[in-house]
């Protein structure tokens, strides 16, 4: 009976979404307050109903109710409790319900905390959100019902996919969906503004907190997924340009551009057309990522196996929402004014250049991801676009971006003084280059271009510090005055500096590990040693072990340096009992920001074992930098100016701001 309650709650959520999708929309056209008030109430009710449905599915997993097909296919009575919870979204049906839960959560947040929004805009935003909810609720009910029953109920489940039985995969999907789905609010704001005809600085200020929140969670989700793949799959890499990885990276690039574009629009009422288009495209890329993962067109460790009907359904959703939004944009765009003017050398100019690079980079990733699929569809020929293509094209595009990012915050709005900024940053650039050369030689050299990559990362970090330094007036005023100025800066200034510095730290990690890592593949016997990263590894043998739902063969290695044993590490190969599926559990030892990575291969005929050993210098900077960027996002969100949004305008000023273009 409880399971049927979850199914029934989902049906009621669909009915509620249908009402919210058109009643407030009509009310906004008629300026009928009662009809517009349906939007917040309906959105809160919709979230409550979906939460009940999700809670029921979670209950079924926790109590191992194998009469539910979804539980039978993705759980086992011996699975640890944590993975019973994560098993709820560790499959197609459950993950789509999580998607819908987060979608309705964002609608409820707008309903609850959007009191400062104009009633008509709020009604339109929530109506658009409800339309998206209808599409995904229908998708779940018609093609991906997680509440399907089995009769008779099996005695035991098939077990959760072993590679998903990890804390990283318990955290990664919710974070990723908070980013993916969070951009739906920006999409809804854009469509609602195009419907209503109000696009101005106040609109940008309302959109920016939602874009920033979605971008922050997406940053954490991508970083968590990268780290999970690094340590769980035993391959030793942190990014492979897998098509599904790209599907999450493209909305991040577009979302980064949207954040900067919305800032220009808020401060200068410029880039209106560009900001609205980016809001549409960012969520469109999120929808495209959903299609790639669930349509069955890709083969990837990240992709869900799906039947073609699901892919066709999602493709229809894609065409309706992306096509409809872009058609509305094309109809309205000629009536939009360009906004404020500014000189090329200005903060606006720097942000426009930043957006141009990010957009082209996103287009490059999109081309490399979709081109093989389109070619196979049209001609039947199969080609592979791999890391060499992405590394070359994306790397060349990112190089100028690293150089211009520190300039933006130091340039004035409308018209900046490039010479003055150069005078402020020449010392930073010099220190970065010298430090990069020193680092290069300490690590015993490598490709000369690595020096420029290291210098670029350091330039970002020191440039972010320089921004705060000059804002506080350090060296120009008394120390106590400089301190008061520093602590008096808005939190968004600290958030921006932290995010830019985090990007620099991530770049340092990427360049360092790409340039200076070493890899050894050895056949090791008992007592044999090998060298890696200045450390000596001794193979001490293997021993069997058992877990709650697996058995494993563990290999022990002693780590020494200078003849002294300093650590030990275990690496293993597991067999999960229910699925009889093997996994490799890498042994990872951390030394500062660097790691020693040990992965087991197959045993040899003479009693030894194949061992792959990597020394990865400063690799933790990659994920540490991503965490810094996300922390910068949270710090900016704590700025009261973002949290309170724009003040409500008086009625006499609440006129449409679309004007015929001159």
For the sheet with most strands, the description reads: 5 strands, antiparallel
Strand runs, count: 9
Rg, Å, rounded: 27 Å
**Helix content, binned percent:** 55-70%
Strand content: 5-15%
Structural class based on helices, strands and sheet pairing: alpha+beta
**Count of helical regions:** 20
End-to-end C-alpha gap: 64 Å
Give the neighbour order of strands across the main sheet: 2-3-4-5-6
Q: Provide the residue-averaged pLDDT.
A: 89
Indicate the overall shape: globular
List the helices and strands in order.
Answer: HHHHHHHHHHHHHHHHHHEEEEEEEEEHH
| Residue runs with pLDDT of under 50 for 5 or more positions | 644-662
In short:
The chain has 662 residues and is of the alpha+beta class. It has helices at residues 2-30, 33-36, 38-62, 69-74, 81-86, 92-113, 119-143, 167-196, 201-232, 243-268, 272-294, 308-332, 347-379, 387-404, 418-442, 449-472, 479-487, 491-516, 620-637, 640-643; strands spanning 518-524, 529-532, 535-546, 550-561, 564-576, 581-585, 587-591, 594-603, 609-616. The protein has a five-stranded antiparallel beta sheet, with no helix packed on it.
């Amino acid at each position: 009976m409880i399971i049927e309650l979850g199914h029934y709650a989902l049906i009621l959520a669909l009915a509620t979404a249908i009402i919210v999708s058109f009643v407030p929309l009509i009310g906004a056209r008629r300026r009928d307050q009662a009809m517009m008030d349906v939007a917040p109430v309906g959105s809160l009710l919709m979230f409550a109903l979906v939460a009940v449905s999700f809670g029921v599915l979670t209950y079924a997993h926790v109590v191992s109710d194998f009469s539910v097909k979804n539980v039978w296919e993705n759980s086992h009575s011996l699975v640890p409790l944590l993975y019973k919870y994560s098993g709820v979204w560790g499959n197609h049906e459950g993950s789509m319900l999580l998607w819908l839960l987060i979608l309705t959560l964002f609608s409820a947040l707008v309903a609850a905390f959007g009191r400062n929004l104009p009633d008509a805009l709020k009604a339109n935003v929530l109506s658009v959100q409800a339309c998206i909810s209808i599409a995904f609720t229908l998708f779940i009910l018609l093609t991906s019902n997680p509440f399907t029953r089995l009769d008779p109920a099996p005695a035991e489940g098939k077990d959760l996919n072993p590679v998903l039985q990890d804390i990283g995969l318990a955290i990664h999907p919710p974070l990723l969906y908070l980013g993916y789905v969070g951009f739906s609010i920006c999409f809804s704001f854009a469509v609602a503004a195009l419907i209503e005809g109000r696009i101005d600085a106040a609109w940008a200020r309302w959109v920016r907190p939602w874009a920033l929140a979605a971008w922050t969670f997406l940053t954490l989700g991508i970083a968590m997924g990268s780290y999970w793949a690094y340590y769980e799959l035993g391959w030793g890499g942190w990014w492979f340009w897998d098509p599904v990885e790209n599907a999450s990276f493209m909305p991040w690039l577009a979302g980064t551009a949207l954040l900067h574009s919305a800032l220009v629009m808020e401060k200068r009422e410029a880039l209106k057309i560009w900001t609205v288009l980016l809001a549409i495209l960012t969520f469109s890329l999120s929808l495209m990522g959903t299609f790639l993962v669930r349509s069955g067109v890709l083969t990837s460790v990240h992709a869900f196996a799906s039947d073609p009907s699901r892919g066709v359904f999602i493709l229809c959703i894609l065409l309706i929402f992306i096509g409809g939004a872009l058609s509305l944009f094309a109809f309205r765009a000629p009536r939009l004014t360009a906004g404020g003017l500014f000189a090329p050398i200005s903060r606006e100019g720097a942000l426009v250049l930043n957006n141009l690079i990010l957009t082209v980079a996103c287009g490059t990733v999109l081309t490399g991801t979709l081109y093989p699929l389109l070619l196979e569809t049209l001609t039947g020929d199969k080609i592979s676009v791999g890391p060499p293509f992405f590394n070359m094209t994306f790397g060349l595009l990112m190089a100028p971006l690293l150089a211009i990012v520190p300039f933006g915050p130091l340039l004035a709005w409308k018209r900046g003084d490039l010479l003055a900024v150069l005078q402020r940053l020449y010392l930073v650039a010099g220190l970065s280059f010298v430090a990069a050369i020193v680092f290069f030689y300490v690590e015993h050299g490598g490709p000369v271009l690595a020096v420029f990559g290291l210098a670029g990362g350091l330039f970002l970090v020191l440039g972010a510090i320089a921004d705060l330094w000059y804002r506080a007036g350090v060296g120009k005023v008394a120390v106590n005055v400089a301190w008061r100025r520093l602590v008096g800066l808005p939190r968004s200034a600290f958030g921006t500096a932290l995010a830019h510095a985090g990007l620099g730290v991530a770049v340092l990690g990427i360049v360092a590990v790409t340039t200076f890592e070493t890899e050894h593949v050895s056949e090791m016997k008992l007592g044999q040693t090998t060298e890696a990263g200045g450390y000596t590894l001794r193979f001490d043998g293997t021993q069997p072990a058992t877990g709650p739902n697996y058995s494993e063969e563990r290999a022990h290695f002693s780590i020494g340096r200078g003849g002294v044993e300093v650590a030990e590490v275990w690496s293993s190969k597991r067999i999960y009992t229910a699925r009889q599926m093997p996994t490799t559990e890498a042994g990872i030892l951390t030394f500062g920001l660097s790691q020693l990575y040990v992965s087991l291969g197959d045993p040899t005929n003479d009693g030894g074992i194949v061992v792959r050993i990597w020394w990865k210098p400063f690799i933790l900077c990659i994920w540490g930098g991503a965490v810094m960027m996300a922390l910068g996002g949270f710090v900016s969100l704590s700025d009261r100016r973002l949290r309170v949004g724009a003040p409500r305008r008086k009625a006499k000023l609440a006129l449409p701001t679309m004007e015929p273009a001159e």
